[in-house]
Amino acid sequence: MTENISSPPPTVQDVLASIESEWDHLQKVLSGLSGDQLLTPGQEGWSTKDELAHLAAWARGLAALVRKQRRYPPMGLPEDAAPNIVGIERMNQVIYERNRDLPLKEVLAELEAAHLDALAAVAELSDEDLLRPYDDFQPQDRRPDGHTPILWRIAGNTYGHYAEHRETIERMWSKE
Question: Which Gene3D superfamilies match (predicted)?
Fold first, then answer.
């Protein structure tokens, strides 16, 4: 099975397998880094710890989203912090500022807990749910692209997101 989010898996079991597979890849990369590497900012200003706090926030939001709960408060954002209102960059900046001073141990624990919460939330869905639109899950947060299947949000906030940031972390610490 490919990890390409342009052709997501069609079943919940496949989605869960993709999430776990990319989680395992991320954990492998992290296991090869020292504590100093996890805390040292890269060229763009974020440390690996900051990348992980970012992943945790979006996984928490995804878990709330698929459970039809308000998705932004679990991310540490105001209730009205939708990307189409506030902007994704501003949302990410707020997440960064909220978490940048947290100890590494807390960030790692939250990442693990958020990952497990997202997995559990996705496991509650049916295969048919994966094709239901975003707006069915978040009627209070209607958006121009709310007609897209929730599967895209799941991929973009779990395995696709894990892959994106894993690659960033790998580039940050590659020995070229």
Answer: dinb family like domain (1.20.120.450)
Task: Judge whether 96 lies within some domain.
Answer: yes
Query: What distance in Å separates the CA atoms of residue 58 and residue 64, rounded to the nearest whole number?
Result: 10
Q: Are 47 and 165 in contact (CB under 8 A)?
A: no
Range of the domain at 102: 12-173
Q: Residue 107 domain-assigned?
A: yes
Over the stretch 15-46, which tens digit does the pLDDT of each residue have?
Answer: 999 999 999 999 999 999 999 999 999 888 89
All residues at 6 or more sequence positions from 22 whose CB lies less than 8 Å from its CB, including other chains: 3, 158, 159, 160, 162, 163, 166
Residue in this structure with the two tokens 């970012």, named with its chain if needed: 54
Total structural domains in the chain? Answer: 1
Q: Which of 89, 113, 124 is CA-nearest to residue 137? A: 124
Name residue 11's amino acid.
T
Tell me the torsion sign for CA atoms 40, 74, 135, 130. positive
